Amino acid sequence: MGITGAIPSVIGELSHLRSLDVSNNNVSGPVPTSVGNLTRLESLFMNNNNIYGTTASIFSNLLPLRRLRNLDVSYNRIIGAIPLAIGSLGQLQSLKVSGNYISGTVPPSIGNLTLLEHFEMHDDFISGEIPLAICNLTSLKDLDMSVNNLTGQIPAELSNLRNLEAIDLGSNQLHGGIPPSLSELTSMFYLVLVQNNLSGNIPPAIFLNCTVLGLVDLGSNHLFGEIPRAISSTEGCLFVVLSLYSNNLRGTLPRWLSNCTRLMILDVENNLLDDELPTSIISGNPYLLYLHLSNNRFRSHDDNNLEPFFAALSNCTSLRDAGGMWEHVSSGLVPTSTEPFLPSWLISELASLGLLRIVLSNNALKGEIPPSIGDSTNLGELDLSGNMLSGSIPSSIESLAELRVLSLQRNRLSGQIPVAILGRCTKLIRLDLSSNRFNGTLY
């Protein structure tokens, strides 16, 4: 249960208090006016409660706290706009107001908080453009304004924030291009601009100059052109996540991906890529969790042999999902350091996992389904629909006892349907073999 009830007014009598933490409880009610008497307070954590009230009343109570460095009121029931008076809290180093009902625009007085290092205002109802005043916060290390109603363009002046390590502006209504000037943020390792209306090319200089870049999510925009062909160092590639799904990207996958040995998520589905299946990328990435290639024009190396690709899949012990959509990892999560990108506890957890899904639908795959598909014994879904596959269904599929979905429709498969599939794959809930060239009888 934790602490319940309202913060008592008597709290204001603790005149020597420097830190107050009531986070992650069931505290309810407004912030008492007496909190303003705590003039020596440096840290105030009230996040994850049921505190309610208007931003005007809450911040007016906090304005006397001129020594306040850390303020976290995220995930409560606070309503209203951020007041201009926020700029009076000039000692703030961390300001977190996410997950409330905060609306309106960000006041220009935010630019007065020149010591601010952490600014989180995600999952609110903020509207308007990103104020240029934010570009004055030269101490800022992470900026998260995701899941709001922001409009306009991403300010090129964000490049003034040379200490910036993480940017999350995902799930807004931003338009225009990605400013090439972001390449000047050489400490940036986290860039999330997913689910906006951004267009234009991905600036190659960002991949080339941001030497510690490890997580990039630009999915669900209107980006076109090629994926940047070069990064700062192919030998020291730090990419853990590269998500570019649902854009209009063309060309091939860059070869430097084969050297990204920490890569866990590669999502390029729903683009216009025309390339060979990335066997070398799978082979070179032992910790790959998600590989999403659907709805492109991927093909096998010699148009007839899929065996190397599927063999690489079956040997990739950490791979959980080859295809489909993934729940993007931003969600307000900003990493706190660049090392290690891959925690040892996570590696040990992944070591025992096997491939769960293969979804390579709507590409340009030719050749036969290789018998080695039966080696992925944990496979729950196999979707190769909408390709140009020929030959027969390999009997090894009957070894996939966990298979629930088998979608091979709209190919050129022929021969008889292995009836053993129906007898041994007892967990099947969807089987689609339509629009092929099968013959024989089902018993």
From TrEMBL:
Cellular component, GO annotation: membrane
Xref: Pfam families: LRR_1, LRR_14
How does the protein associate with the membrane? Answer: Single-pass membrane protein
- Where is the protein found, in the record's own terms? Membrane
Q: Answer yes or no on keyword Glycoprotein.
A: yes
Where does the Disease resistance R13L4/SHOC-2-like LRR domain start and stop, copy by copy?
Answer: 60-201
Q: Which UniProt keywords apply?
A: ATP-binding, Glycoprotein, Leucine-rich repeat, Membrane, Nucleotide-binding, Receptor, Repeat, Signal, Transmembrane, Transmembrane helix
Q: State the Gene Ontology terms under molecular function.
A: ATP binding
Source domain of life is Eukaryota
Question: Known Gene3D superfamilies for this protein?
Answer: Ribonuclease Inhibitor
Q: Which InterPro entries match?
A: Leu-rich_rpt (IPR001611), Leu-rich_rpt_typical-subtyp (IPR003591), LRR_dom_sf (IPR032675), LRR_R13L4/SHOC2-like (IPR055414), Plant_LRR-RLKs (IPR050647)
Q: Cell membrane as a keyword? A: no
* PANTHER family the UniProt entry points to: LRR RECEPTOR-LIKE SERINE/THREONINE-PROTEIN KINASE-RELATED (PTHR48056), RECEPTOR PROTEIN-TYROSINE KINASE CEPR1 (PTHR48056:SF81)
Protein name as annotated: Disease resistance R13L4/SHOC-2-like LRR domain-containing protein
